[in-house]
Design a protein that fits this description.
The protein is α/β, with parallel strands linked by helices and 185 residues long. The protein is 39% helix and 21% strand. Strand 6 (127-130) and strand 7 form a beta hairpin. Helix 4 (87-95) crosses helix 6.
């Protein structure tokens, strides 16, 4: 088997998506998974799918059974990253619903004891974010969304991060551990 890779999923959130994608595009040995909404959102924020494909394999949510999730069972992935993650995806993950490519990836990563790093879009009662045309806007996540984010942080094999800087630090640290000892534990 080749060296294990990083699986990264993007959902339909625009919350710091440019920063997440810019960091992602600096990494090697990554496979990118896009929800249907993510395909729309990355275009709204000025990214071209063809350009991303030049850097890494891209898998889209097109099959009902989410065939790529089986790669977790073969040790193909050492880590799963979901960044950014919508409140919808977070809620489904908390409830154990795996009815899409991304929620299936999260579920199967956990079942295979593969660590997940998740950057949810709803992390505080008041947040500033960037809209597709670049303007800064305030958003006010609902209590139910913040509760789901908190619950997600308690699930096994899940590390929740609350900023792009924390995401970069966590992913970089995980990659260093994997590079050092080749461990996928």
């Amino acid at each position: 088997m080749n060296k294990p890779r990083l699986a990264w999923a993007i959902t339909g959130s625009g919350h710091y998506i440019k920063e997440c994608l810019n960091f992602l595009l600096t990494l090697d040995d990554v496979d990118l998974y896009l929800s249907q909404a993510a395909e729309e959102v990355i275009k709204m924020y000025g990214f071209k799918l063809a350009d991303i494909r030049e850097k890494m394999p891209v898998y889209r949510d097109k099959a009902a059974s989410s065939p790529p999730v089986g790669l977790f069972y073969t040790g193909y992935y050492h880590t799963f990253v979901m960044a950014p993650a919508t409140s919808n995806t977070v809620a489904k993950c908390v409830l154990g619903i795996s009815d899409s490519l991304v929620t299936n990836l999260y579920s199967q990563a956990g079942k295979c004891r593969v660590p997940s790093i998740v950057y949810p879009c709803d992390i505080a009662p008041e947040m500033e974010t960037t809209a597709p045309k670049g303007q800064r806007v305030m958003v006010y996540p609902r209590k139910i969304d913040l509760d789901a984010t908190e619950k997600l942080s308690t699930l096994e094999y899940t590390q929740l991060v609350k900023s792009v800087e924390a995401l970069i630090t966590s992913v970089t640290a995980r990659l260093a551990v994997v590079a050092k000892d080749g461990s996928i534990e």
